[in-house]
Design goal:
- There is one protein chain.
- With about 450 residues, this protein is mostly beta strands.
- Helix content is about 5%, strand content about 45%.
- It is built from three helices and 31 strands.
- The strands form seven sheets. Strands 1, 2, 4, 5, 6, 7 and 8 form a seven-stranded antiparallel β-sheet that branches.
- Strand 4 and strand 5 form a beta hairpin.
- This is exo-alpha-sialidase.
- Its EC number is 3.2.1.18.
- InterPro entries: Sialidase, Sialidase_fam, Sialidase_sf.
- Belongs to the glycosyl hydrolase 33 family.
- One of its GO terms (molecular function) is exo-alpha-sialidase activity.
Length: about 450
Amino acid sequence: WAPLGLQASTWIWTHIELPPVLAEVMEEVTSCSFNSPLFQQEDKKGITYRIPALLYVPPTHTLLAFAEKRSTSRDEDALHLVLRRGLRIGHSVQWGPLKPLMEAMLPGHRTMNPCPVWERKSGRVFLFFICVQDHVTEHQQIVSGRNAARLCFICSQDAGCSWSELRDLTEEVIGPEMKHWATFAVGPGHGVQLQSGRLVIPAYTYYIPYWFFCLRLPCKARPHSLMIYSDDLGVTWRHGRLIRPMVTVECQVAEVTGRAGHPVLYCSARTPNRHRAEALSTDYGECFQRPALSRQLREPPHGCQGSVVSFWPLGIPHRCQDPSGKDASTIQQSLLPDSSLRLEEEAGTPSESWLLYSHPVSKKRRVDLGIYLNQTPLEAACWSRPWILHCGPCGYSDLAALEEEGLFGCLFECGIKRECEQIAFRLFTDQEILSHMQEDCTSPGRNLSHFKTN
């Protein structure tokens, strides 16, 4: 077996002295700026790992890397979820062995679409996923209008060392509305906890507006993104409104903050329309304004999942004040089309929080994984040109921002001939973004020098 591309992976066969909750035999070390394959396809027509999800747990400096284990690369051949735990030590990550998550299973179902989120008050990790009746395809559900998926989660109080029993939320969250949901899924990729404490799990459903009862056939189902959320630390859950009218599928969200301090939830969603859809919410994800296509973020044919994270840029204050102590902000038009929902933001200057986005850059096929930067998420058309993190076939990805260290992680599908050959991990710094990124937004006052440099 030969690792893909340039590697900095060292195999360790001794027991490493770690805190008790983290103590285990570590197998591999990822150094900053190098790719490490965490999940490797066993043969072209056999065991394959797909659908990465990445979560960072700050108190224990732990990275949780999730994926689906499949008997083939096909969706209907998913088996169960697997996990590798990594301990961040400075600018490197020590990875433990692959472990199957047998707690995340329902009898007669396959487990798909890992979507983890960390709740900072309790320290609990929630891992959401769907369980789908064995061998029932998404297409069969859409055509028949008969959902075969269940909404489930397990949780961990010790950063992924052990997990609770499965909890099925299907009736609680969807209930009688199921007659309008031909099928649904969460994520894939991470969820978020907002400043308010709300936990948000991105999702989508193929929605049936009405049925032809005489024929017992559904009207054509159309996919729409939406959020599933909890305001009581994960005790109870409900769903928000569909993002309409545009067709949107797999999505991720990130909370961004303007200089006036108002939080806004940004949504990036997959579409079949050759461009990414973007939408904003001012009510914590309950509903979103009308989505718009981003001309800077292209989709390959049929689209592809992508990841987005927000972070506080180092080296600039979290609030911008004038000498009198008041917020130095003005009113400007944002992505929100309703003038009554204009957001306070300093015109032409960066937001307090910025966005990173990962996605294949080609409009023709899934190749060349790009990392894009947006310093002004509440303005339109301000994405940078991509920094190519991986050259060649690639697919789904998930990003994580690691505390205030200026570090980021990316877990992504890649290969030499096909994107499903492996799932690799890359740790990179803000300085790498600085050195590789080329600006593609001409808004005055935008300058990457706001990144902290050593």
